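In keeping with the milestone schedule agreed at the kick-off meeting, the structural modelling team has produced records for the first pair of proteins. Each record is given below as a sequence line and a structure-token line. The laboratory manager (R.T.) confirmed that both were archived under the project's standard naming scheme.
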Amino acid sequence: MWDYFPYLLLLFLGLLIGTIFSSRFKRAFPPRIMDWAHRVGPWTARVWKSKAATEDATFRDLLVLAGFFVTALTIFFGLRETRIQATRDYLEIESRRLHEVVAAQQQQIHEHLDTIKTLEAEQQVPQLKKPTRDAQIIGQHVDLEWEYKGHNEFTNYMIQVVRLSDRTQSPPQAIGSSESEFDQSMSEPFPATDPGGKRSRFPPEIGGLRSLPAGTYYWRVVPVDFSITPGEDLNRSKIADWSAFSSFTVYPTIKQRIVATHKVLVGTNFVQDTAFSRRAKNGEAEGFDMDLIRVIVEGCLDRDEQKGVAYNETRCKNAVDKYIVNYEKSPPNKFERIASVLGDPKQLKLEIRPIADWKEWLGMLQRKEIDMFIGSATRAKSRERGDVEFTPGYYKYDTVMLVKENEPAPDIAALARKGMKVGVIEGTTNHWLANLLLSEVDLKAGMRIIPFNSFPALDGALDRGDVDAVIVDNTLAAGLTGLKELHGLRSYPAWNKYMENDQYIGYPAEEFAVAIAHDARKDEGVALLEQVKLALQGDPIKKLLVTLKQEYHLE
């Protein structure tokens, strides 16, 4: 407040001078102000021109004028000082904030430097890649893979695998005094079977162990000199430290893993970002396929000690009814709606395994890294190999070729004569069809196939004009605007080969289905496949499919 005292004092003095020396202010105030202004105004103008007539105005009038002038200056400088002080306060606050930001960023820099140092230290030892930590392996052997930055042609590797005994469930910190807690027959390090490729098969084709017993295993690897000999001290031959331990669990069959873990592993692909499978805003899996498989696994299948899984029609009907009732409630939280099917002690738990690369899902099924795959996957004979089989289809669709609405070409052949670039999603049945079309006489000269890794990338390429046409499922085309179908696709012999040949579709219709892995067609190995088939053919799931089509606008 004391900063403004001089300006307040000047304001007071200016008003005092004007009041003391103007006796005319003793009369009615407003009229006298106007009279004084009319009299002093012209006089002030003549003073400015050095033509003042003092008989028109008195010295007292001059003092009054000076008083008002001082008052005006006081107000001006007071306001100016107020703005300056406000700016000064803002800058001080901003300065403190920036100091805090700088301090926080410096802290982050130190943390990042520590992370870099840690990563650099980790680069000096092998990094285990496969199997991933806590992986669940179906079978009697496992392929181990790792990465090592210091690898060269003279690098060999020794591997140590230990099996957790029934007496302990604690992971090893190091192999030494605690070895008594692990299977002694597998704690001895052995050389990698493929050191150049930084991988090894376990059990190796050496020694007495030919297959892995069920159980949990921990493994690690150390780089050694290539010239190491059997029995040589590892501490003298190793050229870097041991890697950290990683773990995996072996189950002889899919059935035994499901019974032991109460889980069914379902793979899907969110990259396509369609109404069938996508990520919701909260990160949860949602879509036609996601809701369908969750209700089937968690609402329709029981955990069964003998078969692994068993279809329970009564529980399935209750789960579907709850889903539909909650859907019709305008609707509540989707994930609460799905959770409403839970609660039975025999119930299985669905575990979603996202697969980033569409082309990988079939291999993961064949390696039994997942139990099922769902996600706009077309039922095809060519995919049913390596202990993989499809359920009956649950959604029929048609393949179409789309172009922009303003495309003048009347059919596919006319567009090919101009030269056309056709976009497809890589590894899909649409890609198969496009490759077959290249063998057609009137298409092969002017048609070029451009694959994309996802539907959003394909759609963007068509918008930008990077491709002239796209071959997609009509389910994907439903939400697109400004496009039209280019007819004539089914008139080519390539179409018949695509549909009828077992190297491609091999079924009467194009339809989405669930792909399921099984255990080499053992009686217990096909239980999951058969029970999911029963669920899809049952009335409750047929009723659910109608609701899902309405919910996701797929009718």
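The second protein of the pair:
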Amino acid sequence: MTYRSLGALGLAAALAACVGSPGKLPLPAPTLVSSSPADGSTVGAVATVALTFSEPMNASSVAVVVTDGANAYDLGAPTWSDGGKAVTYAAPPSPLGHGMTYGITVDGKGTAGNAMEQKSFVFSVEAQPVVEEVQPAAGATAAAAFEPTITFNVAADRASTQIVVKDNDVSTEVQCLPLWSSDSKQVTCHHTAPLAFSHHHTIELAPGAKSAVGDAIDASGELPSAFTAAAGISPPVAARDISSDVATDNVTSNTSIVIAFDQPVDRVDAEARLSFSPAIPGSFGPWDATGTKMTWVPTAALPYGGEYTWTVAAGVREITYTETSTLASSGGFKVVKQGTASLPLVRDATGYVVDLPTGVCRDDNTHPNRTHVGDQGGNGPLLSFYTFDGTSLAGSAPYVNPAAAELSIYQDSNDIDDAIPLGTLYAQSLEFAGVLCDTPTSTARARLPTERSTHLFCFCMIGQPCNIDISCWYQARVSTSWTAGTTQTIQVGSTVSHQWAERADRANRIQFRLAFATGNNYTTYTTDGDNDQDLFFMSSPSLSVTYDYSW
């Protein structure tokens, strides 16, 4: 007879309770090994759902729910395979919706009754594939060298999507070598012989064109498209297109280089023979519809002050393929330079004004190096005005364009009687006459600057429309947490660029007003309303402008 201690018997009972019955451990839960569509993927509307599990499943227990967030989607009948590990819903009653996002929830049990942990994921359906653009456009006349293109809104399946160009006058199909863009959204018919001069042509898609994820491409809005091939002329000569030059042989740093031929040429010939010295990394852009202009798009902005030569080597055939250039074409161009200038202050158009009938006006000649902003003891707002002379920029080169600007003002001290806030301080753009005050020492009344009739004040937030129908200048918000002995610098590039564009009317003046302002268009000057004096004392205004200029 075998005896067991009470402790051993208790341990056996506990183990039996844990596992359910002696000798059996809990079965692991089935898992979803893979899915099609995958989580986060984009598929076509013809996509079907397929699932693979880690073990055979009880088919009657598997529940797969697909919804677009509002409505459930019928997957159709399931087909099981791989011994119950895989299921495919191969024939849904209706396709998925283009442009929709769907969520899938999967639940079920293995054949042994062990339940899986519910799994959820999402996928999206591409937009309806369509033809977005056809070149040449319908009804256009294009050079015989021009290579017809079709552009799609989504990536196309290259194997099933074939561009077809037909010569309707002789009922033949043009022999095309399809050239695809890297994103598979554009296909070009590169014809090995020129299109027949003056013949009528049609661009089509061969039947069966599909997107990269298998949806049929709808071409009904754009195709078929008819155009006429123009007649060709003889030997090609190239020159740089200078229509975008900002000065003689001067281009901006972000320009593309366009080489124009005097007649339509073979695109492959021309592109193979273009070179730059020094080299300019980049790629070819689209040709124009006439087949005469090729465009080189630099990968990065050209360095300021750079000098380049371009060459198109001999051997470029014109479109009849009977004449070939025997001489190289070449030329040069320069990239504009960039400089920085500190604009001088116009002292009799710089100063401050107290906006009271009996207030004062002081320009920088009578109150040198000192302006005020805030409010006066009688609750009259104090406004500061700054004028800078841009004449040095105007005379430096045939082309000048401000790229950035900084306005800096030194705060000498504060005269703040209480902690009541004055509001938000703005540096506002405006235009006024050549002097600030009626007389240099006027104390009888304040003279606010006279605005030009065509440029009334308009203080919109940058990038927002005005509420009144007048020219809109720009303003920059200034921090009001200044402390004595510090310099405040703000970016005013938009203001300077805007004023520079009208420098002829403004006598090259760049002008600002500093004011605590509020209201619908920031034309209401704020005070703290307690009849005491609260103001900032400022000096040493400076305006630094970074600008592009031609050689």
